[in-house]
């Protein structure tokens, strides 16, 4: 039987329940596609701390109510703080979000994410670091931060460079949306369960714990990215944005033309600092990555492209951001190097 442990938590956009041998976390802020705000982050952290040493809880299950798992962080609120000049509040959001990501990564019990829909940015932060990432054919995983002038964060500078080849660089720069089965092939997800069986798996977890996952997996559909993987590696192994663009232009295929078109819509500055951040993460621990991401994001929110990107993509939704500078070639490499400096 499910029991909601604290009535106030539903108001915070997360249901916290004890259900059989599992602790269940249900994201429920559906009008915002379950995007994480600070109250939700605090409730999730509190529940994980409570269950860590609770012998009756053998695993944690997290899922999203409605069609989305979690569309990201509440970047709209962060922009409001920035526009109001309250950078400290904006930084508090990211600091607490990343602290939660680290708690999940080091959690001593199985942490099972059931992903049957959109999972972007902050949604990956609360799933990708856990032990079990179950996806359906309706799941979409993406890191689209270059579209809003931000950078891959939530520990993505740790996991993106560890995906096969340069797929992580491709995802982090282009915001490529990985479909459920492809996410398993790329090892971002750990199990494929057909959407029709997800509710039954969710119920079975309460009695069987995380061992239930194996009983519900379906045949893994083929990896749709196979035809593009060689070109992804050829183009996205380069260490500067102008070089990546030059390699895509040299490919001159329908795929490379489409990728160039996408890259031209992204913040040029964000592409440059995001590439540098992903490269740096390859040599760091997760905790070092999260600290470097927080230092970078603290600087990025003061740059014009962040407020403008969130305005264009999330607030006004005109999808017509005016980036500064507007072209990749005009981004000053010294400015990027300064932004990536880890302070003393
Ligand atoms: C790129 C992004 C995000 C985005 C759109 C992009 C992102 C994010 C959201 C989002 C979605 C729904 C909400 C909300 C935020 O949209 O990171 O508050 O209700 O969180 O093109 O990186």
Q: How is this fold's topology laid out?
A:
Layout: E1 2-4, H1 8-11, E2 14-19, E3 22-27, H2 38-52, E4 59-64, H3 75-83, H4 87-105, E5 111-115, E6 118-120, H5 122-125, E7 132-135, E8 140-142, H6 156-159, H7 167-174, E9 178-179, H8 180-185, E10 191-192, H9 198-208, H10 213-216, H11 226-236, H12 241-251, H13 254-265, H14 268-281, H15 286-300, H16 304-315, H17 333-340
Parallel strand pairs: 3-4, 4-5, 5-7, 6-8, 7-10
Antiparallel strand pairs: 1-2, 2-3, 8-9
Helix pairs in contact: 2-4, 3-4, 3-16, 4-15, 7-14, 11-12, 12-13, 14-17
The protein binds 3,5,7,3',4'-pentahydroxyflavone.
Task: Explain the overall architecture.
With 344 residues, the chain is of the alpha/beta class. It has a domain at 2-142 and 187-216: 2-enoyl-CoA Hydratase, Chain A, domain 1 (Alpha-Beta Complex). Helices cover 49% and strands 12% of the residues. It has 17 helices and ten strands. It has helices at residues 8-11, 38-52, 75-83, 87-105, 122-125, 156-159, 167-174, 180-185, 198-208, 213-216, 226-236, 241-251, 254-265, 268-281, 286-300, 304-315, 333-340; strands at 2-4, 14-19, 22-27, 59-64, 111-115, 118-120, 132-135, 140-142, 178-179, 191-192. The chain has a seven-stranded mixed sheet with strand order 1-2-3-4-5-7-10, with helices on both faces. The mean pLDDT is 96. 3,5,7,3',4'-pentahydroxyflavone binds at residues 32-33, 35, 71-76, 120-122, 144-145, 147-148, 313-314. 3,5,7,3',4'-pentahydroxyflavone binds next to helix 3 and helix 16.
